[in-house]
Amino acid sequence: MRSLTIMIFSGLIALVGLAGDAVNVKSFVENGVMMFADTSRGKTFAKDPAVVFFKDQYLLYYSVPPGQGVKGLRIGIATSKDLVFWQKQGEMKIGHESEKNGFCAPGAIVLKGRVHLFYQSYGNGKDDAICHAWSDDGLSFTRDSSNPVFKPTGSWTAGRAIDADVIEHNGQLLLFYATRDPEMKIQMQGVAAAPINSDFSRTQWTQLNPDAPILKPELPWEKKCIEAAAVCKHDGKLYMFYAGGYNNEPQQIGCAVSTDGVSWKRLFTEPILPNGKPGGVELL
């Protein structure tokens, strides 16, 4: 899963996932930097953020850990008018059999006045897969009855799919996901597509890389893991920001570019966002 995501919105750097009393949240906010952590489990925690603008406010979807009476990870929802001050609105409850052991790591997109979430089931090992839900208010979600809607196939993958991110491109909705090799040791990136006017149920998805990952760890700092794709579009090209290395090995951020979402070229051989100094939190 994504351990730390850095998002840039109109020049604001949003840090989500940092926990502990060593972080002075007030000083972050005073400098116009969003700092959010959920305290509902008795500790500050928020991971895997996805932000959309919907009905005159920003919606933040993020992973919440297990807690008393709550089995597995869940997805929390917070709202904001300015991307700095956030108010938690609630959590998604279990809504489908595929979520019984937990669900998390949402990817969000607004299409035709509706919020669509693509998220992973959790706690099922190789069987974790991507699920779909939608909402007309951004807070209450209807599950896709065909969940999970996607998991990869092929001799190169264990069949697991996590860390969904979606973007509209050339009349399709592209779904980026992380998977592992058959031995569950190497984390890699894949992509699937569905017609943009479809309902995004299971039968609508086509795996665009049936024989090999679209990106796998090759550089020394990427170690055995490339995951947590965050994709944006600029001048007709897709740019993927990804995490290299498992969680705190340390995990660092790289960038690659593509025109079709399948063939990717790294822009740099070194991380564009290297890890910070041990024990420190730095503002860029």
Q: How many domains in all?
A: 1
The CATH class label is Mainly Beta
Shape: globular
Low-confidence stretches at least 5 residues in length (pLDDT < 50)? Answer: 1-23
CATH 2nd-level architecture:
5 Propeller
Strand order of the largest sheet: 4-5-6-7
- Helical residues, percent: under 10%
**CATH superfamily membership:** Glycosyl hydrolase domain, family 43
What gap, in angstroms, lies between the N and C termini?
A: 24 Å
Instruction: Tell me the structural class.
Output: mainly beta
And the CATH topology?
Tachylectin-2, Chain A
Rg, nearest Å: 18 Å
The largest β sheet comes out as:
4 strands, antiparallel
How much is the average pLDDT? 89
DSSP summary, beta strand count:
19
Tell me the strand percentage band: 35-45%
Order of helices and strands: EEHEEEEEEEEEEEEEEEEE
